[in-house]
Amino acid sequence: MPEPMINAQQCASRLEQLLRSWSRNETMWHGATGLLIGTGVNTEDDLRYLKSVALELWLFGYELPDTLILFTKTEIHVVTGGKKAKLLDAITENISGDTSLTLVVHHKPKGEDGKAQVGELLTVIMEQKLKVGVVGKEVKEGNLTEYATSSLRSRGIDVVDVSSGIADAMCIKDDIEQPIIRKAAALTSNAMKWLVERVENIVNDNQKISHAKLSEQCEDQILEPGKLGLTDLHADDVDICYPPIIQSGGNYELKLSAQSTDNKLHYGVVHLSIGARYMQYCVNIGRTMMIDPTKTMEEIYAAATAAQEAALATLIDGADLAAPFAAAKQALLEANPAGRGEELVAMLGKTVGHAIGLELREKSISLGPKFRGSAQTIRAGQCFNIQIALANLTNEDAKQNSKLRTWAIMIADTALVTSDGKPPEILTKNVKKHVQDIAYQINDDEKEELSMIDQSRAKATTVAEGGVVMHAKTRHELSGPGHEEMRRQKQATLADRKNRETHARLVGAQQASTEGVKGGATADFTSYINTSSVPVPRSAELVLAVDRESESILLPIHGYLVPFHIMALKSVSVTQDSGASFIRINFNSPAAPGAVAANAVYAANIKFPDLCFLREISYRSSDSKHANYVVQEMRALKRMVTQRESEKAERATLVRQERLVMSHGRVHRLVGLWMLPTFGGRGGRKAGTLEAHTNGLRYVGAKADEQVDVIYSNIKFAFFQPAKKRDKDIDTLPPSQSNYGGQEKDERCSILHGSHGGSPEPGRWQKEHV
Known about the structure:
Distance between the termini: 65 Å
Low-confidence stretches: 445-453, 456-479, 509-522, 740-744, 748-752, 755-770
Structural class: alpha+beta
Helix content: 25-40%
C-alpha cells in the first residue's frame, strides 16, 4: 500500500479559495482576523458531521485527529504529532511558494498533552491581537481545542462563530470534486433502485419484513458497491451518510435523523430515503411508493413532483437562495390538487433544500424565504439536495384509525449547479419518481372477486329456503372463503394475467413474421440509458470490450466506443492471417439471411424495418490473445442471453400451479409403487408410496427428498385399465396444462401400473411417462 501523501498543489489552490472568501465576505466571517480549528480523537463508528473535519479533508485530503490549526491571513500554525506532522512538513515549501501563506508545524511530542505547543499559538494570537473565529458547536471537540478556547476567553480575547464563512469557502466544487460527487450519486441511485425493486418483490410475494431489517439489507448493498454493479468503486471508499430510512403504516418522520423501526412493512404508502458517501462526499435521495392510492392521493403526489421540479429548475448560477422555495410554493398553488393548494404550501416547512458535499446538510446555505436577499447566492459548482416533504396528509377514503388514514410524501434529489445559466445537472435523475412510476395497483380485481364471493354466499343461504345448490361444498366451505383463501385467489389471478400478457408479447414477433404485421419481441433490449452511462475508456487507445453487466459490446468506430447490445449480433468469428488476427462481426438486420427467425428475439428488426442497419464490421488486431479472448467473451455472453430469453419464452406458456395442501388425520395411501423414469442416483428402483391429499396426489420415493406432486386441477382426465393377460394395471393421469420438469417443458402423460397375480410382488404400482 503506498504511503499517504498530501496533494500540495490542490492544498495551495484551496487555501487561496479560503482566503478569497475570507476577504470578500466580511459579514459571514464576522470580522474575524484569525481562525482556530481543532479536532479530537477519531471515532470511526460516529456518523456525526464536523465542520472542522470537513475543512481538513477539503484542504489536506485526510482527517487529522487530535490536531489544532490557527489560520491568519499570512500564516498557518498547526499543532500535531507523529505521521501527521511529517505529512505537513513535506508540503511547507510548496505552500510558501504557491500561496501568500507560511506553514508552521508545531510538533507535539508523543505522550504529552500539547499544552506547551498550544501556548505558542496563543502567543501568536496575543501578539497580533487577533479576533479569533471558531466553529461554535465544536469548541469542545478534543482536548487541544477545548484548552485553547477556554484560555482565550479567560484572557478576554474576542471569539466569534465563523461556521457560515467556512461553509461558503468550501461550497464550490472544483474539477476534482465534481467527478467524485457523480460517483457518489451513482452509488446512491443504484442503492435506491435496488431498494425499490426489493420492496416490489416483498409486496408481490406478500412477505413480512420489518423496516429495520430492510434498512440493514440496503446498508449491506451500499457498503459492497460491487453488488450494485459499481465495480469501479472500492468498498473502502464508500460509506453511508445515515442508516437507510424505511417508513410506512401511517407513522412518518420526514427527517434525515429518523430511524427505521421494527414495525412490519405496510402495503400502503412507503417512504424510502438513502444517503451514501464516496470518498467522504455525500449524496441524498428520497422516494415515496404508493400502493393502491386513491385518485386524490395521485393528484397530490403529482403536485409535489411538479413543485420539486420547479424548485430544481431555479438552481441557476446567480439566483437568490429563496428562489427554489418560491417556485415550489407557486407550483403547489397552481396545481391546487383537490382544492388543497394552500394547505400543502403550509406543510412545506422553512426550506426546500440545502447545500450538500463533505457535510450531509449545510444549514447556513439553505433554500428558504429566510435567506431572501442574502449576500450568498446560488453559484456554479454548488451541490444542493432539493426535497419536498409533506407530512400528516389525510386519506379521506380510509377508515378512522386505519394505517392508510395518515400518509406523507418525501421526494428528494441531489443536483449540481452548472455555469453560464444552464439548467442544473440532476445527479440522481436515473431513479424514476413520477406518479406513473411509483404508484402500484395490486387490487385491480378485488371488487369483482368480492362480488363473486357475495353471490356464492347468497346461493348457499338459499338452501334453507328450498333453493338450488350450485356447487357441492363441505361444512367448512359453507361459511365462505376466509382471508387467506381470498388472498391466494387474488395472487393466482394476478399471476395468470401476467402469464397471458407475457405469452402474448413473446409470440407477437413470430406471428408478425408470418402475418406481415408488427408484433412484440422477447424484450426491448437496451444497452445504456444515456451516453453518460457508457464506460469511459481506460486509455486513449480504444479496444474492443465486452460489458457483461449491460449485456453489450463496445466497438471502436471513428474514435468513439459505440455500444451494441449482444442480441444485435448474429455471429462473430476470428481468423489468423500474416501474423494478425481478424475479427468479423455480423449483425441482425431485417434484410439479412435468416432475419425472419431473428425477429422473434430481436425487436429492432420489427420496430424499425425501414432504417439503415449495420450488417457487418471487421477489425484487425496484432494481439491474437486479446482477439481470441474478446470473441470467446462475445460468444459466451450471446449464449447466456439467448438461453435466458428462450427460457422466458418457454416459461411464459406455463400456468402457475397451486401448492399441494396436505390432508390432516387419516391419509389414503397406495404402497409398493415405483416410478419410471426413476430418480437419479442409487436406489432409484426402490418402491415408494402414493398419497391422496386435499387437492392432489404426492408420490414419495425411497428417499425423503424424492417427491412428485400431481394437483387434481391439472389432471385433464383419468382412466383405469385392468390387467388382462398381463401382469400390470394401468392408471393414466394426463396433465391438462404443461409443466416444467427439470430444464424441459413436460407435456407427457403420467401412467400408474399395478401388478396382479402374475407379478412376484402383488399390489405393486408403477408410474411412467409416455
